[in-house]
Write a structure and sequence with these properties.
By secondary structure, the protein is an alpha/beta fold. Helix content is 34%, strand content 22%. The protein has a five-stranded parallel β-sheet, with helices on both faces. It starts with 10 loop residues before the first strand and ends in a 5-residue tail after the last strand.
Length: 235
């Protein structure tokens, strides 16, 4: 696509939304959503809950998620080029951080649109603070590959690095991941599990890999996790 903007009032806003506690929504994010002509949301039902919380009514909300973003991106960019104000939000957290966002930003720039980035709470930045591990240098891996061989290859890479690594993990796989960290990276490495950040059942489990592995054996994990690993640091 190579269209020209017909109305200079067109705007693309990429907005971070709360990862749990809706009180973490910023004033700027609320104002921008109120001003938007259209909202592209990863989950339209969750978007409606958020909009209702802040009394943002009568907005056109369209679906834009990882399964359909290649089909919807041209339509959305064209709306901005026609002069409309478009806001893009994830189900929770920051677009582009293990969520859709990169594709629409890339296409916007290709069409001469400079996106407005509105930051907010993210599970990653929350965990960087909560992990209590050295974070002068860090690496973010998102979700690890599901296949054992590929996953172990990433863990071996982390074992040979001096940067603290951050990983997203589901409750179904986190116990297995902790066991693999204990075996591959080593029982003395620093490890923190951040569960349900900003939500009612928020929890942080810290210690060596051996200590955290022992604690997790008695648990039936629930909620989403961020796993922080420091291969060169022993708590």
């Amino acid at each position: 696509m190579n269209l020209k903007i017909n109305n200079q009032d067109g705007k693309l806003s990429i907005i971070a939304t709360p990862i749990g506690n809706l009180e973490d929504m910023t004033f700027r994010a609320v104002r921008t959503l109120k001003e938007a002509d259209m909202i592209a949301a990863e989950d339209t039902r969750k978007a409606r809950i958020l909009l209702n919380k802040f009394e943002i009514d009568e907005k056109k909300v369209v679906s834009h998620h990882v399964q359909n973003e290649h089909r919807t991106v041209n339509f959305l960019i064209n709306e901005v080029l026609k002069g409309n104000k478009l806001a893009v939000i994830s189900e929770a957290g920051s677009p582009c951080v293990s969520d859709p966002g990169f594709l629409i930003i890339r296409e916007a720039l290709r069409n001469g649109i400079e996106p407005e980035i509105i930051p907010g709470v993210s599970a990653l930045t929350f965990s960087i603070m909560a992990a209590a591990l050295p974070v002068e240098r860090l690496t973010f891996y998102g979700f690890l590959p599901p296949k054992k061989g590929a996953r172990h290859k990433v863990l071996e890479e982390i074992a040979n690095d001096n940067k603290t690594a951050f990983i997203f993990e589901s409750p179904k796989r986190v116990v297995r991941l902790v066991e693999e960290i204990n075996e591959i990276i080593g029982p003395d490495c620093g490890l923190a599990l951040i569960r349900e950040a900003t939500k009612m059942h928020e929890e942080v489990i810290r210690g060596t890999a051996a200590e955290v592995n022992e604690k997790m054996k008695a648990k039936s994990p629930k909620g989403e996790f961020v796993v922080a690993i420091s291969s060169r640091y022993t708590p």
